[in-house]
What we know:
- This protein is of the alpha/beta class and 342 residues long.
- Helices cover 33% and strands 22% of the residues.
- Strands 2-3-1-4-5-6 form a 6-stranded mixed beta sheet, with helices on both faces.
- Strand 5, helix 4 (166-179) and strand 6 (184-187) form a beta-alpha-beta unit.
- The longest helix has 18 residues, at 297-314.
- The structure holds guanosine-5'-triphosphate (GTP).
- Residues 92-95 are annotated as: G3.
- Residues 71-75 are annotated as: G2.
- It is a peripheral membrane protein.
Amino acid sequence: MTDDLDPTSPDAGTPAQPDAPSGPEDRSADGERATHRSGFVALVGRPNVGKSTLTNALVGEKVAITSSKPQTTRRAIRGIVTGENAQTILVDTPGVHRPRTLLGERLNDLVRETLGEVDVVGFCLPADQKIGPGDRFIAEDLVEMRTGRRGPRVIAVVTKTDLVNRDLLAQHLMAVDQLMDFDEIVPISAVKGDQIDVLLEVIAKQLPEGPQLYPDDQLTEESRDDRISELIREAALEGVREELPHSIAVVVEEVVETDPDDPFVHVEPGEGRLVVRATLFVERDSQKGIIIGKGGSRLKEVGTQARGEINHLIGRKVHLDLRVKVAKEWQRDPKQLGRLGF
Ligand SMILES: Nc1nc2c(ncn2[C@@H]2O[C@H](COP(=O)(O)OP(=O)(O)OP(=O)(O)O)[C@@H](O)[C@H]2O)c(=O)[nH]1
């Protein structure tokens, strides 16, 4: 068990209301004042159905990490899409699943909490998989939320349409229609970019009237350090199997400008070398060995991949200093979960 974890607590819950910038009045071509809409949209669904890939496609930039491993997303990540007459704040949520650890329970709770706070829900159902008990479980929750009070509007987003032919898609759309009373059903492919604009329009129509909440150029509410730690985790997830992906957590310890000749001497921003120091946590010694690899080879690969993404994010070259530590059974330990920000 490590005892030098930095306590980080990413804000993974309630949508805070940021200061509204005073934007220009929207006017349509004939001079009439156009209605401006704004609000929060949660993308929910089972793990691996394409929620994060869709979030990125809608925002037009990578604000959420994705992977072929289920249960990649662990926080409610907000992406912002600003259009002429609407601002859509997307909340990408962890996949709803049968929890096996305390972390799993907390992630499901986070999704429930998020559902209670948004204006619209995009319920993601992959076109290449039959509707199953996991989908029905989510649908029941949504139906219950709408019973007797004004719950969120619910759009069925049929994802990954590029993986099926027209006939299968038609059959799937009919099955989706039977699942619950949706306000709209929109088939999309985030990978091919099909119907992304249509979905955005459909979502915007369901939002309440309201002002722009974030500045035009803000694409996410994630902090720089949280985005960096996610990019490192994404790189570490590649090539690892079975339970290991779930055991990996990443904490950015510091991002500092240092003297190029002495990494421990800090200098003014822009005048030295930008160093990112981060720790990868795993749950067991054996996992530590896998992450580091023979002679450090795997950790080096993780560092190279993550560094490329971080350079792109920050807009300059960084030096990435990665360490690996064991935090025994952190997914089941309330104290450790707290320290890791869950
Ligand atoms: N072919 C195809 N694959 C997709 C599409 N969208 C997502 N995927 C793939 O599906 C896998 C899961 O995608 P994610 O976006 O990480 O799924 P998620 O629902 O956010 O997953 P969790 O974080 O586990 O809940 C990845 O391998 C994606 O590349 C799509 O439109 N078409």
